[in-house]
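Researcher: Next sequence.
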Amino acid sequence: MEAGELARDLWWWTGRRDSIGADVTSYYYKTGSLVLLFDPLLPPEDPEGFWRALDRDVLPGDEVHVLVTRSSHERSSKEMLERYPGSKRWQAGDEPPAGVTALPAGRPDEVVFWIPEHRALVVGDALVGDGAGGLKASRDELVPGLRPLLELQPEFVLVSHGEPVRGADALRSTLAG
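Model: Next structure:
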């Protein structure tokens, strides 16, 4: 498991997803009394350490929301929802909480979440890390549907497969054409 802070109250962590035989990345964003977990996976490498860290950040009165970019990214949503009474799950078609916006991801079963406070895009499978600090589209036919994201000029592109990517340049070079 790896974890890191991207900006104030915006974190990422990885965990091994045995069903695909690879590490996946999840995200944490706190705004006011809302804790938002994007495509969360309870890391099998250190579940107790993860719970200790998250419990430390979820204060009495906080609301926990689980946001899922696509149904195949439910991952540990159930465990997160069970741990925090009153928590809610959001997915494609739902209006997300806390000023977060759901945007089209180029296919009907997936959304991209926009966090304006940090100029961050949270993507599921439409875009993935290229292993060299950049991005690639998971399928060429998704590129035209993703091009409107360029207008946002994101500071971060938070991918589920790969490490978080900084800057709009990586997105621009991936979607150019």
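Model: The first strand starts at residue 3 and ends at 7. The mean pLDDT is 94.
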